[in-house]
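Dear colleague,

As promised, here are the two records you asked about, laid out in our usual form so they can be pasted straight into your sheet.

NAME FIELD: protein one
SEQUENCE, THEN STRUCTURE:
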Amino acid sequence: MSTITSPFPPVPISDKTMTQRVFDGIDPDMTILVDGPSGRPMTGAEFIAAVKSLAGGLNAAGLGAGKCVAIMAPNLPEYCVVAHGVAWAGGTITTINPTYTAPEVAYQLADAGADLLITVAPFADIATQAARGTGVQDIVVIGEAPPGTTPLSALMGPAQDTQTPVDAANHVVALPYSSGTTGLPKGVMLTHRNLVVNISQMLAPADVDAGELTLAFLPFFHIYGLQVLMNVYLAAGGGLVTMPRFDLEMFLELACKYRTRRLWVVPPVALALAKHPVVDTYDLSHVEQVFSAAAPLGGDVAEALATRLGTTVAQGYGMTELSPASHISPGGKGKPGASGVTVPNTECRIINPDTGASLAPTDTGEVLVRGPQVMKGYLNNPDATAETIDPDGWLHTGDIGRFDEDGFLYLTDRVKELIKVKGFQVAPAELEATLLAHPAVTDAAVIGVPDNASGEVPMAFVAAAAGNAPSLQDIQAFFEGRLAHYKQIRHLRVVETVPKSPSGKILRRQLRDEIGI
């Protein structure tokens, strides 16, 4: 069996908790968090005090140790306080996309077994609707709280000076949701050990400097924002300028104001930085690196961006189930189109996706990863866990790729059904279930198709009764209010039948071949 290992020395496996690891890196006197739109700062000392106060309040209210707290909010300094306050209290934080509809939020609250939901005032109505019928005891609001909700300030209590004791190797501290390789979103159980070791695994090749600020528009509800930005930067002694949503001009203004050394982006933002004319009106000479992840970035876009900004452009690779990083370009110096080299303490294999036979690392096949950052499993879903992690501990990523002679990973295709819209996961099964609820649809299949702005967008193939076929506008109107906007069907083809195998599995490869992708 041929394996690829890391060019970096192993990092220690620590029994510290996520928050202990972050606290170790914080300079109490430094401004470590800034609300980008307002400029409101938070020092390291203020952050630590707020985390300990929230932990004390949660445990005093019986909502700390062993409890699950959901957060549905945009990027704000208080998001970091909530995530680490829950962790310091011995609880589990489940992160919810704030663009979700009430039914989507309700599904995650129920599946995660959430006891409390923390949000912001603009999402309070959806939060209240979604919490009905779940185990959520209260809706807590960051900032001014609408009637019927509780302000976060009321949850703060006497400082809890020490971490609530937990088993770092097994206690699930973060529960983000991922579709994995197939099916509906599932709770990814990430332990303190998973996250702490992955911080060290990323810092080995990423060389984040103490005192370094960067922009954080990548949402904290996504593992990229939660770990690669929030935890890595704070643990390294750096800081974040938060943005509640991406706006290109605000992004450029803040990058110039804070003289950010590097920018962390996703491919659609990399494309805008490479081609949008407004970029030429800003002096970005201080930018040394641009780092892109969450979806593959084409080599041509990377080279165009590097030339325009006079900087290096690099990529990384990972997934929620890997805490999330398994590959990073060392020192920000990558190869066009490559996703980096293997991080420390990590092994990789390439296998034939049809037979499971091992291939040479330079052959093209499914990428397998094994290491201490591999998730504990999917919450309440042992079957999906067993399908993803084999008995030898190898996580089957569902991505097709190969390694070059220098150990750089190149991704070329997917085995998994997942659609990546601007870096966000979209599960075809979830969209198909919604389509089948439409009264005119008798059968349906969904695939991802290339899109310049989003990377991919969903395309639906639907069968309908004769003379009763829905239009794209009909389908889009039906989706409104049921699923988040980025899951919207963008292309539609009406078919007589949806191609399926004898076992009933949708033949998505056949659908892709029919439209030439």
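NAME FIELD: protein two
SEQUENCE, THEN STRUCTURE:
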Amino acid sequence: MAEKTLHLELENIGGIKRKEITLTGGPTFIQGPNAANKSSLLRGLLFALGSSTVPIRSGADEARAVLSSDETQIERVARRTDNGVETSGEAWIEDPDDVTLLERFAALLETNSLRSAVARNEDVEPLLKGPMNIESLEEERATKMRRKRELTTEIESVGDVDDKLEDRQRELETKRERLDELESKLEELYDEQDDTDSDDGLQELREKRADLRSDEAESEAQIEQLETAIDRLEDRKHEISAELEEAREAVEETDIESLKQKRKSLRSELDDVTKRLDVLQSVLTANREMLNSEFTGALGRDSGLMGEEVTCWTCGQSASIDELDETVEELTTLVKADKRRKREHEPKIDEISEQIEQVRRSETKIQELEAEKQDIEQKLASRRDSLDERQEQCQNVRERLTELDEEIADRNADQRSEQSELTGEIEETRVEIRTIRRDIERLEEACESLRETRADVERKRDEVAQLSEEITTLTDQIENLESELRAVFNETMDELLDALEFERIERVWLDGEFELVIAREVDGRTQSDSIEHLAESEREMIGLVLALAGFVTYDVDDVTPVLALDSLGAFDAERTRRLVDYFANKTDFLVATVHPESTVDTAFDTILFEPAVQN
């Protein structure tokens, strides 16, 4: 199987005018003295992988990085413009979340955010927990909970469908049995009826009366249904009026324009703080590089009348080391203050945005309720018109029935009482048959509707059950994510510290608040301590170990093929070898910078860098 390789071409990056190297799979050491542009090579490599920034060589308008393997080749360019530095080209890593993992846990240069935070004893919790994206999990859970509540309300509003369906089916069966009885009875009555004694005129009147009584029964049923429907609509109209009043009060109580203006002002302040913070960070980085970066070696340090001085590699001006230290300290204080203001503004903006959204939801609800109210009023008007029409029809039927009863009574005077009773019974039976047939039709329709409702309720119950499981899973995931992350970090840090064998530091771990705690030996005794009491070299070592633990915890090797290490001053040659051994199988390519005096294991590839030559 062919060995993995990466070929890198750099142009005008940092102090590098042009450079090409080929990396083979496994560890590679970039060896050379200070000012040999070892860090510039790593920055160029990381820029090709996806890092958002790269130093453009002084005097050049653009920097270029080309990274290629057997299957892939990418090219990125950073160009100076009037609006700042703009980049073009497709990076090895494009996904923003993956780029964050690269910059935070695989680009372990001296300026790495985690290493710097530990060195300055700053809060590491947001840096460690950022990739977990808990906010999106909580938003997903809230969405599922809202959907579950909606479905539960819909299910409860339907009631017990199974009981209703069972009652309707039982009623339907009873009606069918009664219909069979009446049809059998009617046949018997017809058989008994003496056709010779029948009065055709009287029979016709009775037929008409039977039809009218059927019409009367049907009109009465329709009137009852309309009155019930009107009552339901009136109740819903009252409910809507109450909801409208409540929603209007919510809108009227909130001055949305004032909230928008306040949010706009806060966002403007936040933008100002962010821009100022970017400038301060850039100035702070420049001053730190003035003190610590290899580029200061281009002009060097001098001992002047005011003490040790350093010459700026960008402007050529000289400044004392003490002045630069004071400037860095002041800038650090300003950066911390602006970060604090930024953290204070963001939740205020979110709170105001939620208030504005609540008002908008209330306004939308008002529109929906007014539309529904208008629809109900139209339905009420229609139902009342229909009710008046049905009542008038029913009254007409009753008046006609009265007339027919009088006519039949006159004709019945001439009929024998026995025949009259038989005919009356036939008439009553026929009326009841017609009524029961209509009842059966309505019950069949009601049963079919209830079956559809039951199927819909079952589907909603299944969805509620599924949502409950998903909500429980998300809740457990949110609750356990931090503890699992902390446990994996602590386990990885234990393994790294065991491999590196630091004598005075026995253990480093994250407590429940994601604060770093150190157990170290003091006067022969082991005791816990905080970062601020450690020596600078010890903080540098712990910062690097913490970042490396993040590389393992977040499986960053699935995102980037390269792990880059720079400024390993806290590690001697033996510990550097152990560190490389530990990560040899955890990444395809491990690239680390070392000084010439470091003893490099001959089993690892080594690329020698000569000091940069100034043009």
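A couple of things worth noting about protein two: The radius of gyration is 43 Å. Residues 5-121+555-608 form a domain with the Rossmann fold fold (CATH 3.40.50.300).

Best,
R.
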